[in-house]
Amino acid sequence: MKFQSSKIIMGALIGVLFLSVSFVYAETAEEYLNHGVVEAKQHNFAQAVSDFTKALEMKPNLEEAYYNRGIVHDEQGNFAQALSDFAKAIAIKPNDAKVYYNRGVTYSKQSSLTQAIVDYNKAIELNPKYSDAYYSRGVIFHKQGNLSQAISDYGKAIEINPINAVAYNNRGFDYATQGNFMQAIVDYNKAIEINPNYVDAYYNRGVAFLKQGNLPQTIADHNKAIEINPGHADFYYSRGLAYTKQGKFAQAIADHTKAIEINPNYTEAYENRGVAHFAAKEYDKAWADVHKVEEMGSAVHPKFLDFLKKASGREN
Q1: In this structure, is the dihedral angle defined by the CA atoms of residues 35, 38, 44 and 46, taken in order, positive or negative?
Q2: Domains plus CATH for the chain?
């Protein structure tokens, strides 16, 4: 199943924006700040950093310049500099929820999950309606395996922002991980209702249907996922599993072969193609897939191997 992580959100534009053509007339720190925001939104990060730095030279306590420069540093992968700028922004204005939130995002990218939660907590304390903070904290709890808390945070994010399709998808994923496939499907339905082209929600719902044994719906959802994104190996692999369960071994073999074509190191696809060959009584082909799995350093399921040995009358 597919799970989506949080993404950094560029800070809100501050004040009146000055177009690049008028930048030659910039005289104040605020003008450099505003021009830096324009450059950042256009992904001209080097110029944005220069503008924010110039604004700070002119006005050292301009919190928004530290904040926005921190966001740009984060976008560039300069996490230490981003954290430094966010800390300076907080020192100047300690009650700005968005700075704590974005510092939490940076900590999360560094896998400093405890620090990220502390910052998301603070952002929520300062702004109890901060949907993105609840969502991002839910992502951290998911990574830590605390699914109940993740589900709770996704629920709060959805309560504040009912059109957050990603929160529905992620909550559905965690419900499915808990074995609550019915509730997972409800959430995937909602995610798809909000975003009819949400490929991960179709795929995840298909997997949940597969777990329930609803093979026609599994195949229908995987068909839709493949229609939206035909280059994803997992979609073919999972549909292949459904075809095998239906006894449609030729289709299963075709799907696993496609998954392998996309991802030549997909050991599960080799093994399950071998299972489909076995079920179709194509024992030599089944053995070829078994050998491929073993060559790739993985172990074949022992029960499948025993069945294949008995059916084929050979040991390898």
Answers
A1: positive
A2: 1-93 (1.25.40.10)
